[in-house]
Amino acid sequence: MTNEKGLTLAQMVLLIVVVLIVLVVMVPQILHYITDSETGSFISSAQFYVDEVRKHLTLTQGFPVDQDDSVPFRILDLDLDKKKQKSVYGNNWVSEKSYVISKNIGTMEDPVYSYSIALQDEEGYCLELTDETVLKRASVKRNECNIINFDDIQ
Question: 20 to 30 A Cα–Cα from 141, which one of 10, 94, 103, 116?
């Protein structure tokens, strides 16, 4: 008798079947995790842009003054490095469809500012004009947004 080491054909087939079952179960979960992570990053980017506009308006004292007055601000007009001027999907923002609107919802004497943001990248990933307080992952869409052009809101 010889002491040969290795797998039989039946063991090899069984191993391949088990590996394929594991892949069939795991791949959709991994893809869901990746998609969920990207949309979470998209929302984080939106909040970052709102914060940058808030900071810019504070430094320039460019807040809306009158009640119900608003100030629109393009994302691409922010002084950001090139990496932060792209979506989490690596695409450029569409200038006319990516902006923040600051609005005075208070009075002239006691101003209160609200911020809404709209984003769309060149591949169609988008966020319709949404108040910053209700930003959520489910708001991120692809090729389904109806965003008013920046020049039409001024």
Answer: 103
